[in-house]
Every structure is written in structure tokens, then in C-alpha cells.
Amino acid sequence: MIIDTKLMVESIPFVLKGLPYTLLISIASFFLGNILASLIYLLRLLNHKIINQFLIIYSSFFRGIPAIVLLFALYFGLPMQLNPIVASILCFGLTSSAFLSEIFRSAMSSVNQGQWEASKALGMSKLLIIREIIMPQAIRIAIGPMSNVAIDLVKGSSLAAMITVSEIFQQAKIIGGREFNFLSMYFLVACIYWGLCIVIEKIQYALEKRFPILS
After folding, report:
1. Which of 29, 42, 84, 184 has the smallest number of Cβ neighbours within 10 A?
2. Membrane-spanning residues where (predicted)?
């Protein structure tokens, strides 16, 4: 039998020992990506030619390179060796920030321009307009795309196994090598990742229901 269900069931506790690392990398990367993306958006509001050009190159670069290349560069290529978890969080935080910054920009620009003009007419500052008027509406629009980024981070965290992080994929590889049955373990870990992504989807649907897009 190619898929050994007994082995899969018996291996669940061992594989799930890597779940805290998977969640840590995914959640920390998502928060770091959001912080950097917010900073990128705020810097773009300055409308400084050089800064804007740099940010455009930044977004293009980190959206255009494979995550595994950046991960290896951070872990193997620097003069000082980073902790593998730190390297993973930095890698996925940087790549996600490039995608999230474009999501923020698109969501912000999709808010009716008249609301900007009306708010300015009331004497509100640009930052106050963003915080009180534009941001609450833009977040509603961005929930779906941001959830896609979160799902990609959960799946992408499996790359951390390449630099010895004992997350769920690495744990599955250990058992697969010991039992000479990688297919069963890969199927098990695929189901676990699928379950994590379903949880994110449920959170997305709940948030979309709680904060519907205003017409």
C-alpha cells in the first residue's frame, strides 16, 4: 500500500511538534510584512521622487525573486549567521511586505476620491483622513487579498525546513526517511497545511461578514 494510513495516524503527534514553529514563522512574518507595507504606503504619500523610485524598485524586487533564494541569502550568504527562525521571518516578512504594500495602495486608491476632498475641506490633516476615513474602508476591501498573503505565508513556511527549522514539513521528512515512506508523510503534512489554510479562510469569511464593504 503506497499510503500507509496507520503510519500517518501514529506520526501525527511527532509531526505536530513542528506546528509552533510553523505558526511562529507565519504569524511573525505576516505582522512584519504589514508593518513594512504600512511604512511603505506612508512614505509614498510624501510624493518624493527618489523615495518613490526606491519603493517601486523594492516592491518589484521582493515580488520578483523566489523566496528560497532570499532565504538562502539571509541564512548562508551573510557574514554573520542568523538564527534560522529569524532568517525565515525576515525572508517571508520582506517578500510579503512587497505584496501587502501593493494591496494597501490598491485598497486605499479604491476609496471614493470625493471622501478625500470632503475631508480636506473640513480641515482634516492627511494622516487623520487616512486613519479615520480612508483606512477603515480600505481594510474592508483588503481583507480578501490579505488573507491570500496569509495563506501563502503558511504554505511558504515549509521552505524553512531547508535551513533546519523543525517545522511540520521538516518533522514529516524525518519520519519519511526513517520509515522509507515519504509519500505517506507528505500526504499527512499536506492535509495539515490544508487544515491551517481552511482556518484562515474561515477567519476571512468571518471578517468579511463582520466588516462588509460599504456601497
Report:
1. 42
2. 20-43, 55-76, 82-100, 183-207
